[in-house]
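Sample log: 3-oxoacid CoA-transferase.
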Amino acid sequence: MKTVPQITTEQAAAMVKDGDTLLQGGFGMTGNPVHLMDALSKTETKNITFIGNNVGEAGIGGGRLLRNGQLKKMIGSFFTSNPEAVKAAQDGIVEYELIPQGTLAEALRAGGAGIGGFYTPTAAGTPIAEGKETKIIDGVEQVFVKGIRGNIAFIRAWKADTAGNLIYRMTEQNFNRAMATAADLVVAEVEEIVPEGTLDPNYIHTPGCYVDYLVQATLTLEDLGSSASVSKGKKVSEDRMNMAKRALQELKKGDVVNLGIGIPTLVADLITPEHGVILHTENGMLGVGPEPVDGGGAMNYPVNAGKIPVTAVPGSSYFDSADSFAMIRGKHVDIAVMGGLEVDEHANLANWAVPGQPLLGVGGAMDLASGAKTLIITMNHNNRDGSSKIVPTCTLPLTTLGSVDMVITELAVFKYIDGKLTLIELMPEATLEEVREKTEAKFVEQLA
């Protein structure tokens, strides 16, 4: 077997040249090669095209490069978690391109596999698809996406052997596995390097043929930024909890369910082993349990899509982001519960962008909204100014076309029956008159 050279972070950083396209693994700070990025931030290298799910946190990971003015362009799915990235993009300081999370993962996998591109239903009919080639396949509009490759990839793994074989830990696979295949030069930052033959070949995630250099670097809680610790207790209003409780009623034993951030996250707190629901998180885990009670945080636990440490229930499994979104697009997720900004009479959803507000990221919403078998939206009935969020036609940038099955607000429950928005239930303390008054969209009443 070959022996992969072991180098320092400084030597690795020197391999990145002005104008290079850099792939950086990680989901938030989980599986993020923070030591390599820190070393790169101390160089004079500039005009980098950065590709990753997000640009780290402010001043951490890719956030260091952004703060230093080393980035020419950012390509990713969710920049909102780093306010500095949002401001740089909206002020025109750095070019940017938003790609839905699952599409980004698959584009990297395609690039690494020598595939020129692929068609996906994700983002069809939305602003993300504007200017792109589309095709109707089996009656479904699909968008063409080109495969992605980079000049160099910085990835993070848990263990490596001297032959370059890599093993990832918990939800640290995320984008790392695909990126390891999709660059001309791959540098893996790892916690531990062991002699070849030490790792069981059955458990290798990335074969050594993809890896050019190894860097040993110990991860600490400080390296993870806000991902380091367990979240604090939540203060939840009665209205929000009522919505979560109502959404829970739609989940059946054996269902594979993905819960978005916001109100949907509260549903997870209500699920018990007796419900028999299998929670899926798009960053690479099936069988998500409750938040841990100790303070170990992301050093000792996997994280969910909200970047919050969670536990693993018996029977759980871990995988990478490309496989996770293949589950979603392939209709292996039964129900997605998501938040919303607008839903209209035509079952269209807008939930990722508000003009003029510091939001810059689609995340996995577009993949989930179009890919889950059933889509449930939980949201406040009205905006703060009193305007309705259930409207005749969405005016905000669309997330998906015609995919919403149910809407749950603090006032009412709607379903789309025979293609029509239908009021099927009033929430506690709500009246029919109030729902009529506060709903701009036309709806059919079918109350029990």
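Observation: The first strand starts at residue 21 and ends at 24.
Observation: The chain has a mean pLDDT of 93.
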